[in-house]
## 1
Amino acid sequence: MAHPQDIVHQLSIRDPEAFWQHHAQAITWHTRPSRALSRQKKTLPSGTTHDHWSWFPDGELSTTYNCVDRHVREGRGDNVAIIWESPVSGRRETYTYRQVLEEVEVLAGVLHEQGVRKGDVVVIYMPMIPAVLFAALAITRLGAIHSAVFGGFAAPSLAQRIEAARPRAVLTASCGIEGTKGPLPYRPMVEEAIKLSASKPEKVLIWQRPELGWGKLDHASGQRDWQELVQDARKRGVKAHPVPVKSTDPLYVIYTSGTTGLPKGVVREAGGHAVGLILSIRYLFGVRGPGDVIFTASDMGWVVGHSYILYGPLMVGATTVLYEGKPVGTPDAGAFWRVVERNKVNVMFTAPTALRAIRKDDPENKYFEESGKRGALRTLRSLFLAGERSEPSIVETFQTLLSKYGAPGAQVVDHWWSTEVGSPITGIAQHAEEGLTDKKQGSPAAAPLAIKPGSAGKPMPGFDVRIVDDNGKEVPRGTMGNIVLGIPLAPTAFTTLFNDEERFYKGYLKRFDGRWIDTGDAGYVDADGYINVMSRSDDIINVAAHRFSTGAIEQAILMHPFVGEASIVPKQDSIKGHVPFAFITPKHPPTGGGNNKQRLPARAPDALFNEINSLVRTQIGPIASLGGIIQGVGIIPKTRSGKTLRRVLRELVDNATRGEFDAAVSVPPTVEDAEVVRAAREVVREYFSSEKVKARLICYLPSMGKCPIVSLIQAS
Ligand code: COA
Ligand code: AMP
């Protein structure tokens, strides 16, 4: 008999209407939807028509009501909703559902008094403190739309997002506390971003942290003290009731990197999000409701934070752990396991990068073993990994530990998804029978499917996953190809981009003539139907499970007066998976011949590296810091139409990090000059072949005789 996970998936694809109407019962609706799915055609201003779909189109709901009020009304007000663990500030706080309601209804009242109304956008730029969760819930309570921006983004990146989202207000804090570096003031970033943005928010609410205040508020530009406003509102009994919105109204917009420099505003619709997220947290994560504790080590600036720190856990009435700290260094590699122990965590979610960092600092797994031997990790039923590919060795290491010290049958679950889709596309369901729409459909007590290290599991309900070639034709099992999704996507997924339907079509549908949604990932399905996500097929790179556009990094680098051309590719990194690596061409190249060293710019190459890297850090953020630069002339291959062949450079760098300098790379017949590929290969060989050289920047000039390298710089 088929496993319940396979049965559930088939049910969801064969009859989405029946499947999702059944699961819509998990929500308290203000207006119950009469149907789950409607399909339409959309015509773009350019005249192109494409398929469009809506989930629960005539339903109405309040997500905050479902996350908070209903638990209090139904007698669960004293259950713990949020535990805040902040090893960096040495604090720990807990909030019951009743306390969360008290915080959120007053804050929503404050926001209303400050002019925020249903349909307005409010940007959140905050560290990982409880106020960030109250902020999102309060905005949602008013039927407004939040747009959270990761606190590690620099002012110009924040400005881009403010300009695109046009928020009525910005909610921020006086500082973030990043690792062991101490308080990082947010004021310069927020003020600079607002200065740079053409759109100006009317109000900026500032949560004052004891570690570092904001300084004197600039009232004229709308700055207000958050806590003062709340205190005052509380005295006056100001509160806001939940405002229901249409199922298809946006709950939030989250900006993510596209292939160009401009971020894409992914729109999350309220109804589909609520229904799909409740199913995913119960079905895939096995977090079924009150009494279950989930610890998601992410940030509210990312989709993972939205879905599995905030909305998923609270919708089912579970306890969520909000963590302000790092996997290592705050204070050590045992930090995560202590959080699990102290809070009796049942389900944990992190990125493979974090586990690699832990493994590096604690190669013997001393911390895990210590806690495990005390029996302190017995509550842990699963460890979820996503954000980037999990190499088999990391899964195997932690599966061995979990089998020894976790709950019986505990699994390490690699699962694959993206900002666009809002919940996992693949994984191993921890409570598969939750998805069945009729008890007779499968054997209810089945254990989860076995994991296969290296694979991200099997499809989740509503996601029709296919592997196709570049013409959109499906390929046989076991063959690598583009991973695409059939329409409609599952209810948590986007159906458009904020104010940019045309880009939605061009970015996701056009490549395969509107037939499939392009995920931008490449991989294969094995004989048992498990999906293996191997790499990106587009110009996006993944650094420490954060996603960046190569185009955006190139734009930052091109601001340097020396740089005429830049091409960014991922370089493998033992902790972060990948880091950005740059090929640059000087704007005014030296001509070659004679003493070329003297003809290079007077500035020392390591200084140049620092200047270029600091542009990336100040334009995008320090999380996008470069892992190296090669500069030269005639080393960036192009097609005859002038398109940069990043893929060729990427393959050269990839091969070189494995020591395979002569391995074949796929050079398209349209290459303008095959000699450039040869030159690129030589310079990459030079950069990566010397073990003693931790070169960060090397220079290359063509037509120089034997060795094209003119300087090789030792890293500082
Ligand atoms: N605010 C301000 N700066 C930030 C920041 C934030 N929220 N987050 C990171 N930075 C800065 C860091 O201070 C660092 O600055 P530096 O170059 O001046 O030292 C830089 O950005 C890079 O940070 P990070 O990528 O976090 O590297 P790290 O070396 O400090 O830490 C890891 C390495 C592996 C511990 C860290 O990358 C990590 O925790 N990764 C897991 C990420 C994750 O969970 N992703 C999942 C998202 S779903
Ligand atoms: P983001 O939108 O920032 O969440 O990034 C999504 C991208 O991260 C995906 O499109 C993949 O490229 C990558 N990703 C996420 N999870 C996985 C996984 N489990 N395996 C491989 N890649 C992943």
## 2
Amino acid sequence: MAVSHKVDYSKTRQRMVDEQIASRGVTDIRVLNAMNKVPRHLFVEEALHGQAYNDYPLPIGEKQTISQPYMVALMTEALELKGDERVLEIGTGSGYQAAILAELAEWVYSIERIRSLANKARKILFELHCYNIEIRVSDGTHGWKENAPFQAITVTAGAPEIPQTLLDQLAMGGRLVVPVGNAFSQTLVRFIRTKGGFKRENMGGCHFVKLIGKYGWQEE
Ligand code: SAH
């Protein structure tokens, strides 16, 4: 058995929730419990296990990152999940955010454009018995029409502009959280679908890797 499995990170994880997440204003108890439960270190390579609960993003290969814990909590809270939702995530990456969402909603659809990351995520999620997640390899800027509408959509990569395709796939009352801006800094934006259209709220500054695809940035 690998050494890492013998290390007990539960206290470190509790400290992460208290000092980085609750202290910054995330109050949804379901979100805090999920962040306290999911073993974040298993979503990064073993050499980084000791840093997995620190207050910053970490590399996951393919020039991509697992987001800072607080950012995951903030975005998840903004989706206002109660437990019966179908959620769409664009940018599976390590699979960590998908695991958090799977704790809080009925079903998670997650799209990743890089096959090797999707495969790694599938493997760890299976090992953790997260069976209510389906991961697909494709350009998530198209959304996932066959399973729309979604009560919640989260985009975990920075978009140059608001992806209309994703707004179209929101259910009535549904929430979309997406970082929008240039390659270096973005604003986290939340949209809520209402009868009259979309309500838009800015949630503050953030920094994400690029959303690359038809309705995102061009491939480099
Ligand atoms: N939510 C992830 C963080 C992902 S980083 C986690 O918890 O680890 C952003 C991810 O979005 C990267 O893996 C990147 O490959 C992916 N991505 C970028 N553009 C995409 C697109 N158009 N469709 C699907 N995935 C995309």
## 3
Amino acid sequence: MTFSKLGNTALATLLAGAMMVGAAAAETLRLSHNTGDTTTWQKGAEKFGELLSEATDGEMTVRVFPNAQLAGGDQMRQAEMVGRGAVDLVVTSAINVTPLVPEMAAFSLPYLYANYDEVDATTQGEPGAKLAEILAGKGIIVLAWGENGFREVTNNTRPIHSPEDMKGLNMRVAGPMYIDVMNALGANPQQMQWGETMTALQQGVVDGQENPIGAVIIPQQVYEVQKYLTAWHYSYDPIFIGISQKKWDSYDAETQAKVKAAAEEAMAYQRDISREATASGIAFLRDKGMEVYEPTAEELAAFKAATQPAFDEWAAKVGPELVESFQSAIDGAK
Ligand code: X2X
């Protein structure tokens, strides 16, 4: 039978069928992250999508879902969902993965790092590779590490200059390790979803919170609901792009290389914009009316000493070998 013998309807059906076959080859991946759509997490995720589309001539696209929408608002659940293949991709931070992989807390041990060089020696070095191996055991393939950043404390009650100033403050925290750190400082920690935190701060349900300046505090306008910020650099939090092992295993080596390269470039970009926004951030926040305090070396030492019990407790949970791997990478960067 030739086309000329087909009626118009039959021809239209055939053409539609051919188009659907074409469409089925293209793939849209769903990416979940748990901050708002103004953050550097979102920008890094969007950059990954753009780069991947370019590299695959539009065969692969990424749809970004912010605010942990795909996990019903539960930021801790995202990693587990990716692990079992319910979501294709995740951009999330270390602390959110600790319920599934407690070893992820190694990155965020209080006062582990003194600067970005030390950070990069771990995320881009052997410790990062070790964590990627552990995550692979949970069905999550780490494609690249990015940055949430050094977490700084904000509150509405008083300026924080010393551990004593933390006493009795009601603090929203993201995850388990920070509960122990806040307890060590004499604060009253309360674990809460990030998606509920701005309202809780506004209504005075909690007095304060802690988050990185460039990646979260500025883009999510925390300065609108908080008066005091202390740049105490007490804990570093990396993010990563992870893909479900199920998805990953469905690709040939060439496609895997494209996905990995797009993720690495996107996270390098995301780290850069987070660091730039942090560097200019203190001036920006003062301009917005926040009272920003930058502690002296002695004051930082006092915070470090006060949080040591939480460090020791979590170093034991994470395991001495892993902590040793972090510390030797850090020493190599000194
Ligand atoms: O919830 C937080 O504080 C955030 C956004 O930094 C994390 O996802 C850990």
